[in-house]
Every structure is written in C-alpha cells, then in structure tokens.
Amino acid sequence: MRSNHLFNKNAKDIDAIIFCEFDVHLGPILKHQYPENYVTKETFESLSVYLIPKPELYGKLITITAFGMKILGYPVSITDAKYQRNQLIFNLCFVFSHFTSTTQYEPIIQKLAHYLIDLEGEMGFISKKDIEPELPNYLVTIRDHLNAYGVCTIRISLSTTIHLKLTKVQTNPRQVEDYHVPILNSNHFNAKNIGQWDLTTQQIYYYIDGVNHVSKIAFLADVDINLAKACIQNLIYYGLVSLVPIFLYSNVYVTTPEIRSLLANPMLRDECLRAVRKDGSIVEPSLKKILQLYSNMCPGMTVKDLCQRFYPHSNGIDEQKLIKFGIMKGIIRRIQKYPILLDEPIDEEPDSYARVSSPTVTQSMIMNRSASSPQSNTSTSHYSKNICTYFDGKHSYDQLCCEFNRTHQEIEEKVEKNPAVVVCWK
C-alpha cells in the first residue's frame, strides 16, 4: 500500500470506492475501483474473506481496519435461479484513512446497497454485461460529489434516481441530571413517529411537558431513573428534546448577548411572538414588551418581582413560556444558588433534611413539591446524610431539592438557620 494512506489531508473524505463480487470460478474478485489501483491485488486477497464474508454477515454493515485503511461495506446476496449457483453476491465499499470516523457514511452505504438490489431486479444492472460497464462511471460520480458537496444525485433510468446525502454527525449531548426539565422541540417533533419509539421512551413521553423534571417523570412513568435519563439523552441527540431548569417564581435570570438576535433575526422574532403568547389572551404580545421583560432580568430580580412590576399577562405574555423560549434560544440564562459551608455548623440540630431513600414515597408528596425528587436514589437500602455535607459550592438548590426531596423554601430555611453557610450565585 502507498504510505500516504496514513497521512491523508482530507481524512473525512472518501479515499476510494471499490466494488467486489463473488465469481463462481475465481471466488472473490475486485471488479471495479476508483481511483484505479488504489487497493492492490495483494491487499484485496488478504481482505477478501471479510469483503465477501460468510452468509451470516450478508445484509449487515461491516467495517474493516487494516493496511492503513478503513473499509465500510454492506455485503449483499440475491437468491435467484437465473444466477449460477442460484446466488449473486457483491459488496460496494467506501475506503477511508484508518483514523476516519465513518458513522455518517453508514446510512449511505446501506442505501446504496439497496439501490443496487432494486436496479439488479429491475434491469440486471450488475449481472448483465451490456449494462455493467456503466457502474465504474457511477462510482466516480458518487465519490467526487459526496466529497465535494456532501450530496449526490444520479439518474439511472426513467424510474430510478439515486439520491445520497451526508448527514451531520451530532456531538454527544450533555449529561442529563435528575433536576433537569426536558421540553419537546416543536420544530423537530412529529407526534406520528411516537409509535416507532421503544416502549420506555413512549412511557416517559407523556410526562415531558416542560414542567416535570427528570426524576418526577421517571416516578410518574414508573421507569428506572437511569433508564429515563438514557431515553431523554437519546431524544436530545436527535434534536427532539431540550433541557431547561426547573421553573420557579423565585428563579433569577440574566440576559446574554444573544438578545440582539431578536432584533436582527425576523424569523426568530416572529417565532418568539407566537411562542410566548398567553393562551386565551385577546392581547397580542409586542416585541417592545418582550424586550422590556428580558432586559430587566438581572441579579436580584426574581420572576415574581418581574411579574409584579410589568404585569406580563396584561400584555398577552405568559411568563413561563417567555422564560422557556429565552432559555432554549440562549437569550437568557439561569443564575443558580450554591450554598457553601465555611466552617463546622454551630449548634447543629438533628438534621430533619437527611437524605433518605424510601420506596414508600406517596403520590401527594411528589405532586405537592415542584422541585422534589422521589427517585433521587434507586438503591433499596435506607441511609441518611447531613445536608450540610452537600454545601460545597458544587450543588445547586435545584440539585439539593431533588437529592433530598425538599422544596426550595425548605432548603433556604436550612441555609438561613446556619450562620456558617453562605450562598454563591453563579
């Protein structure tokens, strides 16, 4: 192999395309490749047992990393009496540098294989000698267009056109915590697809309302908390769900530089006007009032203070929708409270806020606590911890509420009673 396979400057591109087939007389053969002679005869012979594999791997994605290359393929077997030995076996593969991430190419290589299956059934695209010479030309177009534009369209016949498009590889979503509140992204969500989801995701979906936090959703859906987190994280990955903080009228928010986008982006502005409107209000929200509310969000100004000062309902604005929209679009951010224990507690009373894991949490207990977490610990053993051990500047009020099944007010009272505790807002 050539040494430059290890040092490809465009590692994300397709280096080559190869088409392998099983010949009843010669066995596995490398029938076409582009560029020519990219994969040597010796290399192919070493890898042929994987490129034309055993029947157990037919119709499955395979990845081979060897000789400085990564080869992605989808071996296919078509059974029909018209073929010698009643089978046509082939594999069209993309070849990359060995360190390339090929995830985004997997659906394309699978789609190409199914196109070839359909074309072979329709017109003998692979097996007929008078048609088969066209395949190398298509390989050239596929590789060059996908590398240059990320899309490729080829008209094969009057009834068949190949459409290929690279999809963006998503980064792993952030960790889902018990106290996070998932909210559906209406722009990407299609309720018709719910029936195609796994059963656990279907269970938790009905409790994702932008109000319930993860721990509460798991409790209401009767699902293990860790399983619920995994499902929500998967929904975030596909852009169906976003995470927002628990909404309370005691919350404090501040604006970010993104607030300027409400003026600069007409589409965002129109979306905002629709999203924040109070249900049933005859008054249409105005951009001026929305900007007034956002711009007055600052340290020390709670949502309750904001409502008492500007009366958003009288202007057709739902403050909860306003906050959620601002968080999801990055226009505002939440300032959280983090208690810090500076010294040992003075005359500390027995801790009535010990963290206890109990399977006997009642429905009324969870419904009456807007920031509580009945499933903060899935262990069945009972144990207690002094809440002050969590006053380390790393645990917010939201997290403490879920960990100890307490309201913000109860945490606040605990903090205020202890003169050795200070609160950091960040």
UniProtKB/TrEMBL annotation:
<dbReference type="GO" id="GO:0005774">
    <property type="term" value="C:vacuolar membrane"/>
</dbReference>
<dbReference type="InterPro" id="IPR009348">
    <property type="entry name" value="NPR2-like"/>
</dbReference>
<dbReference type="GO" id="GO:0005096">
    <property type="term" value="F:GTPase activator activity"/>
</dbReference>
<dbReference type="GO" id="GO:1904262">
    <property type="term" value="P:negative regulation of TORC1 signaling"/>
</dbReference>
<comment type="similarity">
    <text>Belongs to the NPR2 family.</text>
</comment>
<dbReference type="GO" id="GO:0010508">
    <property type="term" value="P:positive regulation of autophagy"/>
</dbReference>
<dbReference type="GO" id="GO:1990130">
    <property type="term" value="C:GATOR1 complex"/>
</dbReference>
<protein>
    <submittedName>
        <fullName>GATOR complex protein NPRL2-like</fullName>
    </submittedName>
</protein>
<dbReference type="GO" id="GO:0034198">
    <property type="term" value="P:cellular response to amino acid starvation"/>
</dbReference>
<dbReference type="Pfam" id="PF06218">
    <property type="entry name" value="NPR2"/>
</dbReference>
